[in-house]
Amino acid sequence: MIYRIFFVLIFISLFHFSCQKTSKVIFSKKVSVFDVEILASSTTSDDKILHAAKILAQYLDNDENGQVDNVLVHKMLLSRKATLLMLKDEREADDLWMSGENDFPVNSQLLFDDETIPSFNSNTSNQRFDASLEEILHLVTHEGYSLVYPELKEQKGSSLAVAMDVARGGFFSLPPEVYPSSAWYSYDDLTCSYDCMIAEYFYWVLTSILGAQSYPGRLNEIGHEWSLNSKEKVMSKDILAYSLMTNSNFNLPKVLPDSEYLGFEIVLNDK
């Protein structure tokens, strides 16, 4: 969920002073993917960290030739010091929140070990969706694409926002009590502001086009929030968003990342 970015920002502002005093290293493991860092706690398993790194690598290098596909987005991510943070679970995050012992980078996205599923297969039934496909994409779009391309900005009036308003059945600064019956995007998290709604919409549209949301049983899990769970559904109904996601000027990913990356060997290091 995109709200995790804002969780990190609040966390830092609340505990900045205590952060200066603590010597505890929360994130003791590190992987660098095209110089974009993944920092992980000691309780996060190595295989989950490496899986996340492969997902990030494929979002940035979708053809897996060892080079980033979108140089402008990559430069933005580096300039923002965009960072993926991995913790064991929400309880560990809550404990850090309460203790104030942290060294969270500002422009960060959280991903938990217990929601990272290397065995996920978009072509078969799954007991659980691989959240790395969502959270890492949020990092790349929020800190990259949305800041490079005005059409993809997470703000009212952008082309992506206009498409979202159509998908929601109108403009709503906050989730309405009841969405119009014509809506196919009906996210109802009251903590999610308008820009957050755009980020979530970006995720739903792109991953549906890439085939992440159409495996057996998935629509039953997400239909209350998003009903266009396949490329064909998006292409036929959400024409505005489909044209944005497939616009070659943005060079967005065309293939869903998986558990293998062929561009180069990814190595886990101690921080």
Supply the key terms.
271 residues; alpha/beta; 10 helices; 5 strands
What is this structure, in a nutshell?
This protein has helices at residues 3-21, 46-60, 71-79, 90-99, 132-148, 159-168, 194-210, 218-222, 231-237, 239-245, and strands at 27-33, 36-41, 83-87, 108-112, 269-270. It has 271 residues and is of the alpha/beta class.
Explain how this protein is built.
The chain is α/β, with parallel strands linked by helices and 271 residues long. The protein has two domains: 137 residues, no CATH class; 100 residues, no CATH class. 43% of the residues lie in helices and 9% in strands. The protein contains ten helices and five strands, in the order αββααβαβααααααβ. A five-stranded mixed beta sheet has the order 4-3-2-1-5, with helices on both faces. β3, α4 and β4 form a beta-alpha-beta unit. 40% of the residues are buried.
